[in-house]
């Protein structure tokens, strides 16, 4: 899957994650550390970024649209300081731009003082919760479901923030990995099914919570462990306190993190993402070999799987497509009539590598099929004799309700076509998808994962309208 119509510089995919999170508690340059942490997590959201810091007397927020480096200039970071803070990267809904008021963290005043939240995931019962609260007089400032959690915390009759937060998070269903902060403590929480990752690290006496371990690597923090599904971590002057809110059910870790979202240099859900993707590529090569001359990746998210494929197939891995990383946020590909296509802007085929070759092109997934079709066309135009398209995950047939912004069922090509139909649509010489059992075989604890976008078997109740959850959407 790849480029969206807007040509946004991001991974410009047809499927988007919503967020990257980082929280830091302790004496140090927290603003800079959050900045670098968000920078490392930029792939999880590029439409907006924000941070909230508390310094003992004041709580300040810094938020903006665009990339982390654009939003948090050195001058902006000098305006904000503190010994604890939370930060967030946000992705917008496909085709729509983010409004600044929806950029997180959200910071509000309530009777207990200042309260901030940053959230990754989507709640599946947010509509009835919000409707009930609005009927009872609550006023919402944003269209994010995080604000629903804030309201639930504010309405709690419990005293301490961890108790209030516990009461709130136990009322919601779906994917809720979040950071919550007041003027005294910073809380990290993962819902009982643990859809989205959150890890704990340590740096010079400070505690760090982050969506992915690549954030620890950049700031030099040491990885301690993952926050467990259903666990609340409370960071305060008393140190780190871990609370288990409910006996955890079997988890439903998002398999798409392993397939595409997470950075390959992260360790997610206890697995090195690069290793998982390499295994997927190897299994794909075993299941769907191709008589070919070389293997290329659709960069960057397919690099590890393509390496695995090449290794297993005994074929050379070549850089047959080069990705332009520098498409700015404001770069908009002109309309249909333009001779410059968004996919062409993003990927340059290397003709002298591809010419007259039988090419295996490995991608991580196919969503609508339109981008794969353009890529196949690019490769043929660059001189490839055959294009054997290999996909390192099974056909996506169902939308995600847990924080991944997928198209509707009708737009998912695998919902409409069988493999041969997809092959014809994308114009490849041959097409092979990773088998579901091979996807499971690529991780150590296959029973702990959610596979609903491939199977339609959702681990929670889902809204009845059957498509994705357009609540966190502008
Ligand atoms: Fe991840 Fe798919 Fe499950 Fe959504 S439905 S949480 S994308 S595995």
Short description:
The chain has 17 helices and 25 strands. By secondary structure, it is α+β, with helices and mostly antiparallel strands.
Topology record:
Elements: E1 16-17, E2 19-25, H1 30-40, E3 48-54, E4 59-65, H2 68-71, H3 74-78, E5 84-90, E6 106-110, E7 113-120, H4 126-135, H5 146-155, H6 161-169, E8 177-181, E9 186-190, E10 199-203, E11 206-210, H7 214-219, E12 222-226, E13 231-236, E14 239-244, E15 253-254, H8 255-261, E16 267-268, E17 271-272, H9 273-287, E18 294-297, H10 303-313, E19 321-323, H11 342-346, E20 347-349, H12 351-354, E21 358-363, H13 370-381, E22 386-391, E23 404-405, H14 413-416, H15 419-426, E24 430-433, H16 436-441, E25 449-450, H17 452-455
Parallel strand pairs: 15-25, 18-21, 21-22, 22-24
Antiparallel strand pairs: 1-23, 2-5, 2-11, 3-4, 3-5, 6-7, 7-8, 8-9, 9-13, 10-11, 10-12, 13-14, 16-17, 19-20
Helix pairs in contact: 5-6, 9-10
Bound molecules: iron/sulfur cluster.
